[in-house]
Amino acid sequence: MSKKVGIVGVGNVGASLAFSLAIKGTCKQIVLKDLRENVVQAMALDIAQAASVSNSKTLISVEKEDFKNCDVIVITAGLPRKPGMSRDDLLLTNAKIMKSVFEDIQEDNPNAIYIIVSNPLDAMVYTALKVSKLPKNRILGMAGILDSARMEYFIREKLGYGEGEIDAKVMGGHGDDMVPLPSYTTVQGKKLTEILSKEEIDQIVEKTKHGGAQIVKLLGNGSAYYAPAFSTSLMVEAILNDSKKVYPSAVLLEGEYGYKDIVAGVLVKIGKNGAEEILELEINEQRQKEFAHSVSSVKELVETLNSKFFV
Ligand code: NAD
Predict the structure, then answer these.
(1) How far is CA 303 from CA 112, 123, 180, 255, in A?
(2) Ligand 1 pocket mutation, candidates 17, 91, 151, 223, criterion most atoms within 8 A of CB
(3) Are 234 and 125 in contact (CB under 8 A)?
(4) What is the pLDDT along the chain (311 residues), one digit of tens a residue?
(5) CA gyration radius for the chain?
(6) C-alpha dihedral (99, 103, 107, 113), degrees to nearest 10
């Protein structure tokens, strides 16, 4: 409990993450940073009061001088896509924000492990690695826990099992071409492929892929935040507790699955050193193709970054 977590970007996801960590008492201090200073101060007060009523000892700060020597830093800063903005415009805008965030905080936080949440996720992890020049274990992206949680939810909805009985795995980039893995998904220890028909599994896979878009459409202005925030809190805890838990996370691949210099979601053992080990699953030919497709979508974004941003 002697640990410090920094959060940059205290919008929907950042504030919900701070709330989750604070009421669970995950760390000693949470330091918040956002351009909207009054809003972040209001959030800090509200969350600190929630922590107080939940008997948590976690302290919340917005003081600039406290944003140093953090053990974990979560970055959710970024702009949403606005009308008229192309996918590339959003990519370059958020890459600029990512760069400015690292310029602002990196020096004062020499030992931090970074969790990136900002979208487009895989490209933002790549940007963070490039601008910070940190080793690959120090920067992870959160998406796979969320995508897996969505798959678990849709399986539960179909089968009616309770919490903890379902373990789903999703890898690949964070987008419509993510790669849900039914053969590595279990219900009470039994393979999903032995329980549901191919058609039923296909339906769950489709729902999982569009789980984020479903919420975006209903909200009308913004994207999901409770599940993303809670998923991020699990990664924060794995680092702070050095738990060595295995979670799907976006990391730089250097030969794993045959890919180099690209970020994608894979299973990662997480501990105090961040991404401590990448676990390579044996995946069938169809999933390999889907993974290749997913990686090629991330590659397109990385090529845009390399030709227009890192020049
Ligand atoms: P939001 O608009 O509510 O919050 C973003 C916050 O970032 C705002 O408060 C804004 O003021 C702040 N910000 C912008 N530039 C900044 C800077 N330079 N320094 C500090 N703060 C800055 O958005 P949200 O719903 O919280 O989502 C945040 C990001 O997370 C978005 O990019 C979103 O697409 C992404 N997201 C990712 C996942 C995932 O699975 N990886 C899930 C949900 C959302």
Answers:
(1) 28, 10, 25, 19
(2) 223
(3) no
(4) 569 999 999 999 999 999 999 999 999 999 999 999 999 999 999 999 999 999 999 999 999 999 999 999 999 999 877 777 777 888 999 999 999 999 999 999 999 999 999 999 999 999 999 999 999 999 999 999 999 999 999 999 999 876 678 999 999 988 888 999 999 999 988 999 999 999 999 999 999 999 998 998 898 888 999 999 999 999 999 999 999 999 999 999 999 999 999 999 999 999 999 999 999 999 999 999 999 999 999 999 999 999 999 98
(5) 19
(6) -20
Give the residue whose CA is nearest to atom 16 of ligand 1. 77
Q: How far is the CA of 79 from the centre of ligand 1 (A)?
A: 6
**Is 174 annotated in the active site?**
yes
Give nearest CA residue, ligand 1 atom 8: 11
Ligand 1: which residues within 6 Å by Cβ? Answer: 8-14, 33-36, 76-78, 80, 97, 100-101, 117-119, 121, 142-143, 146, 174, 222-225, 228
Secondary structure of 48-78 in HEC code, one letter for each residue: HHHHHHCCCCCEEECCHHHCCCCCEEEECCC
pTM: 0.97
Strand arrangement, sheet containing 166-167? 166-167, 186-187, 190-191
Q: Are 219 and 228 in contact (CB under 8 A)?
A: no
Q: Residue 197 carries which DSSP code?
A: -
Residue 239, phi then psi, degrees to nearest 5: -75, -50
Candidate from 40, 43, 62, 117 with most ligand 1 atoms within 8 A of CB, to mutate: 117
Catalytic residue among 174, 207, 209, 287: 174
Nearest-CA residue for ligand 1 atom 30 is: 118
Instruction: Map residue 164 onto helix, strand or coil.
Output: coil
